[in-house]
Amino acid sequence: MVIHIYNDILDEIKPSDTQRKNMLDFSNKLMDIITSYASSQGINITCHLVGSMAKKTSLVNKADIDIFMAFSLDCPPEDLKKYGLEFGRHAIETMNAKSQLRFASHPYITGLFDDYEVDFVPCYKISDASQLRSAVDRTILHTEYIQSHMSDSEADEVLLLKKFMSSVNTYGANYKVSGFSGYLCELLILRYKSFDNVIREAATNWSEGVEIDLENYGTCGNYSDPMIVIDPTDANRNVAAALTIDKFSEFIIAARNYLDNPSREYFSKHIINTSKDELSNAFIERGTSTYVLKCQLEHLPTDVIYPQINKTTNSLERVSRGYDFSVIGTRYYMDDNDVMYIIIEYETSSLSNIKIHNGPRIDDVKNSNNFKNKYPDSYIHKNRLQTIKNRKYSDVMCMLRSILKKENMSILKLGKNVKESLIDNYEIYSIHEFIKKEEDLDEVYLYLHPTYELSR
Amino acid sequence: MVIHIYNDILDEIKPSDTQRKNMLDFSNKLMDIITSYASSQGINITCHLVGSMAKKTSLVNKADIDIFMAFSLDCPPEDLKKYGLEFGRHAIETMNAKSQLRFASHPYITGLFDDYEVDFVPCYKISDASQLRSAVDRTILHTEYIQSHMSDSEADEVLLLKKFMSSVNTYGANYKVSGFSGYLCELLILRYKSFDNVIREAATNWSEGVEIDLENYGTCGNYSDPMIVIDPTDANRNVAAALTIDKFSEFIIAARNYLDNPSREYFSKHIINTSKDELSNAFIERGTSTYVLKCQLEHLPTDVIYPQINKTTNSLERVSRGYDFSVIGTRYYMDDNDVMYIIIEYETSSLSNIKIHNGPRIDDVKNSNNFKNKYPDSYIHKNRLQTIKNRKYSDVMCMLRSILKKENMSILKLGKNVKESLIDNYEIYSIHEFIKKEEDLDEVYLYLHPTYELSR
Q1: Does any CB of chain B come closer than 8 Å to the CB of residue A261?
Q2: What is the ipTM of this complex?
Q3: Please, which of A40, B56, B218, B340 could form a disulfide with B155 given CB 3.0 to 4.6 Å?
Q4: Structure pTM?
């Protein structure tokens, strides 16, 4: 592989020594402010710089700082929450910055400083996973494990891997992507040593259920996920649990594409270049019937709303199929203004008015008599009764409008928030109306070219 | 049940004593002519009146006479054929009637007399089924079995059963009907004693695989047909082998309908009363796309041509489904001029231009690389590749016209004779054109009301 491109890429994506020094100095200053303030309040905590910054695996411009305040295990949870917010706010105010309250498993406070965004997160000081009180408590263990096991050059390989994964859209454990987390990327490099090796292994040796167990805990057999990577700090956790089979597969395909053509282009986003005419013609050629459901949602965290949109899309597809409207494909996304879009492509927009409805076996006297009474026009097909029934819906748009009515909506499995927004208001466009009307059509392009991001 | 209607019905359907005596006298005369002529030629045969007439189970106006000439087992087959034709022709000429050559397993000769049609069939004189040389040899055994086991009143019950079966269109072992043979009706009466009992048993106790073994041979287990009736003259023959599951089911349903309403109407054909408008509107309401394939065939025996039409219809349905045109139903028939009609109803006449084509698992590196090379637009669906392929046909009429071209026809499984006729010429009509054009639309009505004949 062409190693020299990696140096060029690292020059672009790795924070400089000065940037890194400034950031560390700034973090240390904040941590000093907090520790002395806490001790002045008679509370004993230790502050930790955690996350990719601490592990030297943060990409330039994504350099947000995570400061964890570790309380002793005998501190009651209410106190931990209260002091966590108080100490963070104190550091932010001392530096004359703005603060913002955010939520993960507990509320935490974020400081919006000139050069950085800093999260101040309270957690418990644990020495191993058995003492875990909440998900954030692991973070310090993870940071320490990577710090103590990863060389600086391996950290650079992590940067390449993260950049590649971002560019092919497989990076991020959040529900929007359901891909590879930063920690998972780090463990892959610890396992395979270099970016090139990860690519080669993925391209040629990975298959569903691939196992990585750095500490030889022998617990892989407990999992049936697409990929099983045992957390070195917790024998009973699969770090890749959130990775979907689709993203796993996409990374494998991207890795194969890259091996075929190891171009620098794989380290930046694949720019989409399309036009309204091109898109509209593509749908005309397909001879299908495609619709877009558009709905304004309330503002909610990505990890709350994306699973609901996913559920809604799957449910629309399943219910459509139940009414015999065959679905070619779907794609969902949300824009920056919390507007949800669901693209759904049907084989045809209209069906016959009737369908065959199978009845009981003829030698089942009781049920076949009941069936014949219920359907006087029933007839014989081999050893069974059949009848012709009217379809509830022969037009796909009627079907969609009907199942989205408040009184019929219970047939769909929607998330709570999506459901409330759909009751308020939604629009359905034919894909052609939609293309005419909207400006940002990248997602429509990606619907038609779902592997566009995986190749260059 | 209302017994008195049966007497009325028998009055109509049973030949009178005079008719029967005339027929027996006439048959005996013919048999005398043949036996003395044969003996004058030095050939030793016995003549037998066989079939329903001999068994007193023939319906009035269906009183054709079957005379079997039984040769000794040491007569070579060529001689049997030759003498069979010669002796029959001699009897016909002696009586100044016309003769006609016909074919079953051998050729045989039919005499067209003023009052009767008489078949003269040569066969071997066998004493049990183990000596069987051809299918016709059984006939004498069957006739003798019924003559020696059935009372006159039971023969009347057979008449009722045959008449009922004819009226609901389940009578006849030929390939046009694939229903109950006359001999099977006789065995049913021997088993259940009366028409009413057959009806009651069928309606309430018959299920697929019902077994009747009058001579307790214990051979039912060798068969897996819808109905198993061991031939009393041959432990290794199922008399109901030609009965299809559909006709078996239809008789059961007709029997249940009759029990619900034991009307005289069940002993005559159910007259169809429809109009072009009614039929056309019914198809419009169904919102489907229905076509009729019409083709002039050459004149061939029913049992040769019907299996071919059946095969053709099934094949058209299977190939249509293979191209994703979903078939609601089919019906075929032939008119008196050997014109074949196949009605085929599709859910829709047009499909999208594209369809999903599934590829290999992604972890199957070799095949997934091949697939990706073959279909550069392939994409990921879970752990597999998929691609969008253009359909060969998106319009049903184009598909039909194309697969019926001589060069494409091999995709269809057609009988030899149907195939040759289709190559010459055929027409396809939309059901609405067809209804406008044709006069006899009973079969179209029966397509829409497939159980019409089973109820009154």
Answers
A1: no
A2: 0.80
A3: B56
A4: 0.82
